[in-house]
Amino acid sequence: MASLRKKDRSDYYFACFTGPDGRRVQRSTKQVKRKQAQAVANEWEKASRLAAEKRLGEAQARQVVADIYQAISNEPLRSAVARVFPLQWAATRKVDTALRTYQAYTQVIRDFVGSLGERAGLDISQLTKADVAKYRDEVLKRTSVANANKSLKYLRVALGAAYKDGVAQENPASKLDTLRRREADRAERRPFTVKELGA
Is residue 16 part of a domain? Predict the structure, then answer.
């Protein structure tokens, strides 16, 4: 079982437990209350044991962090699934945006979730700049620079809401720059011919 100790010149308890490689390690729990420090130490030891048995996957690691957070704060760690949160967010925009804007938000979010593939089942905090860039580039191949930039703008707002709501540590869409217009998109429009005007 994990134990605790205090060091001179520190108010925090340190957890003492066996690491995955069999050596004893000490880590600061950043807790000043013994009960909370012991809860953190126990979870670290549990994670270390799973890692030693090669059973600490991503899901288990996230659960350990969630358990530590709940032990310290007495409330569950907030989370959201990548395929669910943006769609729920888009639905809330129906009341405060014009119909066409709401429809545009919804379409961009649906397309983005579709582009994620299996990653749509991850926690939204695990989405990366690469996920957003992949979607933006897919839009660019299908349409234009202007549409790709508009889709990126909508994603910045949606993923920014996840950041503001505390279910993501950052907004990956805000890390991407908008694309510069290509020469083909800058081509001047010619005037209508007399025949076209007549039609």
Answer: yes
One domain for residues 52 and 26: yes
HSE (CB half, 13 Å, CA atoms) of 139? 26
Flag whether pLDDT at 183 surpasses 50: no
Whether residues 117 and 174 share a domain: the answer is yes
Confidence of residue 18 (pLDDT cuts 50, 70, 90): confident
Q: Is residue 194 part of a domain?
A: no
- Where residue 181 sits, what CATH number does that domain have? 1.10.150.130
The residues, ordered by sequence, that sit 6+ positions from 16 with a Cβ below 8 Å of its Cβ are 2, 3, 4, 5, 24, 25, 26, 41
Say if residues 17 and 45 touch (Cβ distance below 8 Å).
yes
67 shares its domain with 147 = no
Residue ranges making up the domain that contains 116: 85-186
User: Residue 147: left (phi > 0), alpha (psi -120 to 50), or beta?
Assistant: alpha
Q: For residue 198, is pLDDT > 80?
A: no
Residues 58-69 pLDDT 10s? 666 666 666 776
Beta-ladder partners of 16: 3, 26
Q: What is the pLDDT of residues 134-166, one digit of tens each?
A: 999 999 999 889 999 999 999 999 999 988 888
Mark which of 45, 73, 101 sits at the end of a domain: 73
